[in-house]
Structures are given as structure tokens and as C-alpha cells.
Amino acid sequence: MQEKDKKDWQPKILAILCNWCSYAGADLAGVSRIQYPPNIRVLRVPCSGRVDPMFIMKSLQNGFDGVLVSGCHPGDCHYLSGNYNARRKFAVLKPLLEYIGIETERVQFSWVSAGEGERFAEVVTKVTNDIRKVGPAKRLVKGVVSW
Amino acid sequence: MVKALREEVKRLFEEKKVDLVIGWGKGSLPMTATPIFINKAEDAERLIWDETCSNNLAVYLTKDKRQLVKTDQKIGIVVKGCDGRSLVLYAVENQIQRENLVIIGVPCAGVIDKKKVLKHIEGKEVLSASFEADRMTVEGRGFKTEIAKCDVLSDSCLNCNHPNAPVFDVFIGEPRKSDSVEDVYPDVEAFEKLDSEARWKTMVEAYSKCIRCYACRNVCPSCYCTECFVDQNDPQWIGKSPEITDTLIFHLGRNLHVAGRCVECGACERACPADIDLLKLNRKISKEILERFNFTAGLDINEKPALASFCENEKQDFIMG
Ligand code: SF4
Ligand code: SF4
Ligand code: FES
Q1: Tens digits of per-residue pLDDT, B116-147?
Q2: What pTM value is reported for the model?
Q3: C-alpha angle B109/B85/B20, rounded to 5°?
Q4: Is A73 within the bounds of a domain?
Q5: What is the ipTM of this complex?
Q6: What does the domain layout of chain B look like in residue ranges?
Q7: Nearest-CA neighbor of A35 among A129, A143, A133, A120?
Q8: Which ligand is closest to the CA of B248, given by its number?
Q9: Residue A114 Cα, gap to closest chain B Cα (Å)
Q10: Residue A142 located in a structural domain
Q11: How many CB pairs under 8 A join A and B?
């Protein structure tokens, strides 16, 4: 990558948000006019339990620099246990990706409720800054990995 | 030992306790055993039990191989520790009817990985092989070599704490005392210590050898979905060519599907024609699950796999505070 491109580079981050909480939290941040980095693209899911680890790996493969998954706080899941099941999957996925050499910053998880507009903005800001630090994704990206 | 096994199987047939017994027989090449299906007492003579009996026979109870065994049959199956763990997994996941199964345990001191032997003798052709307590002798045209067994044991056997089937109906001989290995995952720990760049490089190098034959999936007792995600076209999760990111995601996906269900039998690794160290990823997950959820697959018939259960108040340090 050219020096110039590096300066202009903006991370592209996929935010997979649960419809009942984090998605509404993002909405609240919006209507409250809270500023946060414009680097996320939102994918709305019915529940964090819907998130197949495959979604996350495919996103990285297809050029996202990072993925944020956000659901309801423990105890608040609309479907009672979706987020608990999701948490177990993430507990394995995160160290596994790190183990094969994917920077740990690229895949992050949070709980954000519908009332936490402010917190949503904070989470997105942190994830964006983290990913800015590690730079554009190269590993696991189709067409970029050389072997 | 083999004699006792044959007699026991004969007895099971004579007492009409089984209609079919799945076990190992002598393979057509040296150092190999082949799965055999016996349906009459006389054939019990074909059974063997030694260091070459590496196949995890549990696979024949699931997958499309189910056609081999009718559901109302009483089936006897000879199992090592890891194979026995697969049966526990099947019982937990309602894949078998426990009461239709006669589990015949054998004490296991580890099986050999034929690929390791061949490496040892630089790929020369082996015409015969014999085993003693701690070593094996291989012979071929113009050579005869002794090899320490520990050098050619399957990777899955190196740190094994479960040499006997956790659940069985009959056991041949005495259950083997476990070595009580304390450090079960030294290989994983060593790899974790490398820096991220080196880990990535190693992975790319290893998995770029994969020819996507899916032998690893096909022999895996825990991979029994009727349609595998890698074969799906709509959506097509994984590209069909052996492109490195597709290949890696295939493996990560498979590893995650068997997370908390992999019994670390090593069948995948032994089957791989590209000689990829496949257990490196499986064992990382098993280690993570053991540390976090204090769970080991296939030990307890009353416990759900780690990823099919949860505790409300468990540690969530990987989630942003
Ligand atoms: S993934 Fe490999 S080691 Fe694990 S159960 Fe399947 S074949 Fe055995
Ligand atoms: S057995 Fe080996 S070569 Fe075949 S798909 Fe599995 S890892 Fe790839
Ligand atoms: S409904 Fe929001 S995480 Fe389940």
C-alpha cells in the first residue's frame, strides 16, 4: 500500500447489531445527535444468538477491517438465552482467531441496550480507534494473502 | 488380549446379545488395520487389537454409513478410549440408542501414525512390522529398523488422559491406568508463545498444502451432518477451489462445529494426505473449553456439550466492559 493511501485509509467495520437492543441503541445515538466515527456498516439481526461465527470470518475474508457484534445485556435477551449461547461461541471464536494470527482488535463484542445511545457511540469509537491502530486487514482477506 | 476379545465376541453371539459386531481386522498392508463387520460367531477369529487399530469405529454408527447398521439391530462395537468418548457424545446428542449397543472396551496404550513410521524410514516400502512393549520393528527389502514406539505414536495419543472408554458393557482385560498427564496441551502452549506474525505464517504454510479432499471431515466421528456447510451452494459459504482463505475458513468452520464435541481421536490428522498438523486447531479449542468451562467432550453421558449449554454468570472478559 502506498504511503498516501495509508493516510487516507478509513477502516471499514461491520457492526452486527441485535434488533432489540444495540440496533435501537444506535438509533438513539442518532436521534440524540451523538457523534461517533462513520466507519461502521450496520447489519441488523434478530438476536446476538443469530450470529454464526461464519458471518464474522466471511466479513473479514471479504474485506472488512473489523467486526463488532453487539447484543442485549445478559439477562435481557428477548429470547431469554440467545446472548448466553452467543457468548459461548464468541468465547471460542475470539481466542481461535487470535491463535491463527488474526489481530485480536479486529473482532470485538459488546452488550449495549436500547437506552444506551451514549454507550453505543463510545463502543464504536473504541473499536474504530483500535482498528485504526492495527491498520488495514491483510490476513484472511481473499486476494490479499500471498502464499 | 486378542484371544480374550475373540472369545468375548463369540460369547456375545452365542448368547444372542448382538447381531453385528464392529471391530478391527488385519489390513491388507503392513501396519494397517481395517474396520470389519462381523455377523456370526465364527468370524470373531478375524478380530485383532493392537497398535495399528487406529480407526475410530464410532463413525460407522452415524453418517450415511448408518446404512451399514440397521437401527433395530443389537450392535457390538470395540472401542479405545477416544472411540468410546465418541459413543458418549452420540448418546448425549441422541444419535444412538444406548440400549441397542454393546460397548466392548479395550485398554489402549496408543496407536501408531503410519505416516510417522514412513517418515522415519524415509518412505521406504515396509513389508512387515511387529510390535513389542515400547518399540516396533519394520522390515523391508534390504533393511530392518527398530523404532521407539513413542516416536511414531499418533499425535492424539501423546498427552492422552482417557485410555479407556468412559462407558462400556464389557471390558477386555484390565482398564489401563491413566498416565494422569498434567500438562495436556504443551503443543498448544508452545504455539501460543510465538508472535502473531509467526503464527499466521505457520498457518498459511500448513493449510496451503490442503487439497480439500475432505478426508478429515469424512473420518471425523463428530462431523455427521447430512449436509456439510462446505457443500452448500446457497449460500455458498466456502469457495470450491483450494484458495488459502477459503481453505482456512473451511477448517476454522469445521473446528468450530466440532468445538466441545471433538474427542481428539486424531482420525482427521491421520487421514490427511497432505500431512497437515490438524490437531493444532482442535486442541486449541479443547484447551480453551477446558479452561473456561471445565468441560471435556465425551466423558459424561449426562452433560451437554460446552457450546450447547451455558451458565448465566460465567466469565466474559473477552467482551468489552
Ligand atoms: S476433529 Fe479430528 S480429533 Fe476431533 S473428533 Fe474429529 S477426527 Fe477426531
Ligand atoms: S484431509 Fe488434509 S488435505 Fe484433505 S481436506 Fe482435510 S486437511 Fe485438507
Ligand atoms: S434479543 Fe438481543 S441478544 Fe437476544
Answers
A1: 999 999 989 999 999 998 999 999 999 999 99
A2: 0.93
A3: 90
A4: yes
A5: 0.93
A6: 2-113+153-320, 114-152
A7: A120
A8: 2
A9: 17
A10: no
A11: 107
